[in-house]
Amino acid sequence: MSRLAQTHGLTDVQREILSTVRDFVDKEIIPVATELEHRDEYPQQIVDGLKELGLFGLMIPEEYGGLGESLLTYALCVEEIARGWMSVSGIINTHFIVAYMLKQHGTQEQKDHFLPRMAAGDIRGAFSMSEPALGSDVSAISSKAVKDGDAYVLNGQKMWLTNGGTSSLVAVLVRSDEGHPEGTAPHKSMTTFLVEKEPGFGEVRPGLTIPGKIDKMGYKGVDTTELLMDGLRIPADRVLGGVTGRGFYQMMDGVEVGRVNVAARGCGVAQRAFELGVRYAQQRHTFGKQIAQHQAIQFKLAEMATKVEAAHAMMVNAARKKDSGERNDLEAGMAKYLASEYCKEVVEDAFRIHGGYGFSKEYEIERLYREAPMLLIGEGTAEIQKMIIGRRLLEEYRLQD
Q: Which residues form the catalytic set?
């Protein structure tokens, strides 16, 4: 185990799970990640291995066939998986956001119907908020659901759907003005629908089309798509929680979990970049000695390791806060912001240590250099995190009259 990013106070079960995941990453992910990433190939064999390990049920309660583990355990597993290949962590992230939203907000019938199959990995989850024109402004969602008898008809276009093709259950956030008079605040007239579909591309159920994968700079392997709804008919019992108008709050609760996940991914990618940098610095020789013996490189390694350690500590704190049942939007925002920024910096420093070879696709650092930028925008940009952090700080430190 690395000296860096250790987590104190773990149970024997948590340590055993993490040891198993790390072994899987070292043996099954790292050796093939770069080749699969260059081909933009979905890592089916890796996903099957995660399913066998039970990781798709990691946070799902035992009564539904899951392992019933904490957000901290999940985040530490994500950190390990992202250390191997960040795209694989994305495959399970959206799945767990949906499972978490079901666990926290679903009706009993919805939990009984979906969670056992999600725990087994037979149903894979994805969630959808973003649209082509709104970016971070969730209140500007224009996709709409209209009541029609005992069902709702959904129309609109969603964007940046991770696992759009491979998922079989999508939590979709749309406007639902039914029951909410004109002038209602936008965030109070949104509803989350549980949309079941066939995996694949094209028309995956009547009224629902998943176009082909979006070609991306990095974060390859995992499919990122649009979602097109044209007269998509969804039964009323597939409104998450059974009541309209609560979708925004349900999604934001899930996004807090997602932000801890993105922080964990940043920690994992930064750890791998440090490992690659410190190893190469001891292999490469200039002016008659290892470049690791040059003070300039030692300073760089010291800065990289400190950033890895700081980001990990903040991520762990955010996860533990959520596990305690307390509000963690401040801690999750700080962790996501710091970990993603530090990840970018650590990866760039490792890239610089590699010199010209860092520009070669034969070296793993080239892949990490293209992957790190996604963390700067996923689950909310740095600017959004700063807004959340600033507002929460003003709440905590408001002057008393």
A: 379
